[in-house]
């Protein structure tokens, strides 16, 4: 599923690890995504996309196969700029799962998760089964390999 999401491909995101309720993704530094050309710092939207994506990924790891999810709320605190030239990682952890809502905490960092660039809290809607990420449009999903908004 992950590789079929267009923004994940555009940002060259890759899953480093995922287990039930937690996971890490990485995006390499890309000069095309710089938000401050004078300093070479990546645009904050890259950090936002990374955190939203890892949060959705870890929610998918705890909900039933075929269930849908979408971001309801995403709060990000930017703590410092990313360092030019370094890859970004994001780690997410599901802190609570109810039948209809999942709660996630996450952080973006380079190498050390204890030295975050940003951290987030997120809530996700958990929908019924019948969602598909196969790309064939069956099952009520968007057919684009998505599921997180």
Molecular structure report:
There is one protein chain. With 149 residues, this protein is α+β, with helices and mostly antiparallel strands. It has a single domain, classed as Thiol Ester Dehydrase, Chain A (Roll). 15% of the residues lie in helices and 37% in strands. It is built from 2 helices and 8 strands. The strands form 2 sheets. Strands 1-2-6-7-8-5 form a 6-stranded antiparallel sheet, covered by helices on one side. A two-stranded antiparallel ribbon has the order 3-4. A hairpin with a 4-residue loop joins strand 3 and strand 4 (41-42). The longest helix has 17 residues, at 44-60. The chain is globular and about 45 Å long. 34% of the residues are buried.
């Amino acid at each position: 599923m992950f590789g079929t999401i267009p923004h994940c491909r555009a940002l060259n995101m890759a899953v480093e690890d995922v287990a039930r309720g937690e996971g890490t993704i990485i995006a390499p530094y890309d000069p095309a995504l710089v938000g401050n050309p004078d300093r070479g710092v990546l645009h904050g939207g890259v950090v936002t996309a990374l955190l939203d994506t890892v949060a959705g990924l870890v929610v998918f790891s705890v909900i039933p196969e075929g269930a849908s999810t979408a971001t309801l709320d995403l709060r990000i605190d930017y703590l410092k700029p990313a360092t030019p030239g370094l890859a970004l990682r994001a780690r997410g952890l599901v802190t609570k799962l109810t039948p209809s809502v999942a709660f996630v905490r996450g952080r973006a960092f380079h190498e050390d998760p204890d030295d975050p660039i940003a951290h987030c809290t997120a809530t996700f809607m958990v929908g019924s089964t019948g969602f598909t990420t196969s790309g064939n449009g069956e099952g009520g999903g968007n057919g684009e390999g998505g599921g997180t908004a």
